[in-house]
UniProtKB/TrEMBL annotation:
Top-level taxon of the source organism: Bacteria
Gene source species: Mycolicibacterium peregrinum (Mycobacterium peregrinum)
Protein name in UniProt: Gluconolaconase
UniProt xrefs under InterPro entries: 6-blade_b-propeller_TolB-like, SGL, SMP-30, SMP-30/CGR1_Lactonase
Keyword DNA-binding in record: no
Cofactors: Zn(2+)
Pfam families listed in its UniProt record: SGL (PF08450)
Entry note: cofactor: Binds 1 divalent metal cation per subunit.
Length: 282
């Protein structure tokens, strides 16, 4: 059994409400604070800038032309914003989902998007595929709360956190963007519930296990190679970035399910150094 390497994290940014969706883009760390209704970016020194004002902002990505794509939580919406922070288009997806959450923009501009669907008995999960013009179709169903999304280095495998399934799933991506039948990339065991994720150049996946307070690096088959324990709060989402791609940014939120629904949370971002750099998306 290979030992798990422990890594220590240090503070980076304090004073946000509920951070989500971190992405390294244009030499800055971008992330959402949905409860504050903002999309932020931060330089390597921690200087903050408000990039977009948008209620319930959650997931982030960029189309090939630089258009920012933002999804929402607790409502099913997708928004496009320009370089000046102006929302240029909004898409209402409430006919197919109760809420959206994280998203991933593939290199060709297709957007994969979490869908949470209320069927009268509870929530089921799906994945939507959104064209740059906002046209959407559902490409996966029957998931137990899909969450973080990432493409492996081959760009033909989509890895998805299944939060209530306690595992990461892998889908083969077809030429038309459709997803094949999922396989289990990593089973994290019943006590861990994966949230946001990011992928490194070796095909390892960093994922937040939000309610066990740890960020894990896992590889195909489920082996955990590295672990970062946090002292308090939910381990929500990681992102690899920095000038050399080897800074791991860790979004941590102190809240509960009840407080989150009531808009109560205290968020912060930590950082740590790792050996294997990120792919850049996400």
């Amino acid at each position: 059994m290979t030992s798990v390497e422990a890594i220590a994290a240090v503070p980076f940014i304090d004073g946000i409400v509920y951070g989500e969706g971190p992405r390294w883009h244009g030499d800055r760390l971008w992330f959402t604070d949905g409860l504050a209704g903002r999309v932020y970016s931060a330089g390597a020194a921690g200087d903050l800038a408000v990039e977009v004002e948008l209620a319930r902002a959650s997931g982030l990505g960029w189309l090939p032309d630089g258009t920012l794509v933002v999804s929402t939580l607790f409502s099913a919406e997708l928004h496009h914003a320009d370089a000046h922070g102006n929302v240029t288009a909004g898409y209402d997806l409430s006919d197919i989902a109760w809420s959206t959450n994280d998203l991933l923009v593939a290199p060709d501009g297709r957007t994969y998007l979490d869908l949470y669907i209320a069927d009268g008995r509870g929530l089921t999960g799906g994945i939507g595929l959104v064209a740059p013009d906002g046209a959407v179709r559902i490409v996966a169903t029957g998931l137990s709360m899909p969450n973080g999304l990432g493409l492996l280095p081959d760009e033909s495998t989509l890895v998805v956190s299944e939060t209530h399934g306690s595992r990461l799933l892998a889908f083969t991506v077809g030429p038309d963007g459709n997803l094949g039948t999922p396989t289990v990339f990593a089973d994290l065991g019943p006590d861990r519930h994966p949230d946001g994720l990011c992928v490194d150049t070796a095909g390892g996946v960093w994922v937040g296990s939000y309610d066990t307070g740890e960020f894990l690096r896992v590889v195909a088959g489920g082996e955990i190679t590295h672990r970062i324990e946090i002292d308090r709060g939910w381990a929500v989402a990681p992102a690899l970035g920095g000038p050399d791609g080897r800074t791991l940014y860790l979004v941590v939120d102190e809240t509960s399910h009840e407080d989150l629904l009531a808009g109560k949370s205290t968020g912060r971002i930590l950082q740590a150094r790792v050996d294997v750099p990120g792919l850049g998306s996400p």
